C-alpha cells in the first residue's frame, strides 16, 4: 500500500513571500504547471489512487484536482478536511517574511518558522468562515507550533488514513508545507531538534510504501530534479 504526500503548487502568497497559514490564496500559473507536472509524474509511475484527502484551502484542492485529471483519475473520491489545513501562523499571517525578519530579528523568526514547539504571536481574531461553521469554535486555532499542527492532524491520520491503508488502498494526501512536515516527522521518527532541517517544496511528492503488516518499508521522493529512494527503518513505523 502507498501513502502519497503532496504539497500544493506555488500560491500567490508563496510567490510574494508571505506568511500564509489559514489565508486562502489561489495558485499561480507556475503552481498550476507544477500540479500538472506532479500528475504526469504519478501517471508515469502508474500508481492507482483509491482515496484522496485535502485541506479546506483552495491551493490544495485545486492541486489535487489537477493531479487527478492529469493522471486520469478524476473519479477518485476526495475528502476535504480542516485538519489538513496549513499550520496557523497567528499574527504573522499576511506579513512579508523578509520584513518580519527585519522587525523581529531573523533568529526569532527562524524559531517561529522552523522549530517544533514555538508558537508565533496569537492572532487578534479567530478564523470564522462558512467552511468551518460545523466545527466547535474552540477547536479553531489562533496560532500553532508544528507540534500543535501534528496534534491536529493525527486524529484524521489514525482514524481514516491508516484505516484506508489497512484496507489495501493507495492514499493521496494533498496538503501544505508545514502540515506535511509534521506528518513526515511522525512517520519517520525525526527528532524535535532535526525537524528544522526538513524542507518540503511546492508540488514535492513523498511516496511511502507499507507492507502487509503495515510496516513502513521505504520512501520515494520526487522534488523535480532530486529523486531518490530511501529505506526506512521499521522502528520509525507509526501506523499501528
CA radius of gyration is: 17 Å
Characterize the largest beta sheet: strand count, sense, and whether it forms a barrel: 7 strands, mixed
Q: What is the residue-mean pLDDT, rounded to a whole number?
A: 91
- Give me the number of helical elements: 7
User: What level of helicity do the residues show?
Assistant: 25-40%
Strand content: 15-25%
End-to-end C-alpha gap: 14 Å
Shape label: globular
Give the structural class: alpha/beta
* Strand tally: 7
Low confidence ranges = 225-229, 231-237
Order of helices and strands: EHHEHEHHHEHEEE
Q: Order of strands side by side in the largest beta sheet?
A: 3-2-4-1-5-6-7
Structure description:
Helix 2 packs across helix 3 (58-70) and helix 6 (146-166) packs across helix 7 (177-188). The chain is α/β, with parallel strands linked by helices and 240 residues long. Strands 3-2-4-1-5-6-7 form a 7-stranded mixed β-sheet. The model is unreliable at 225-229 and 231-237 (pLDDT under 50). Helix content is 35%, strand content 15%. The two termini are 14 Å apart. A hairpin with a 5-residue loop joins strand 5 and strand 6.
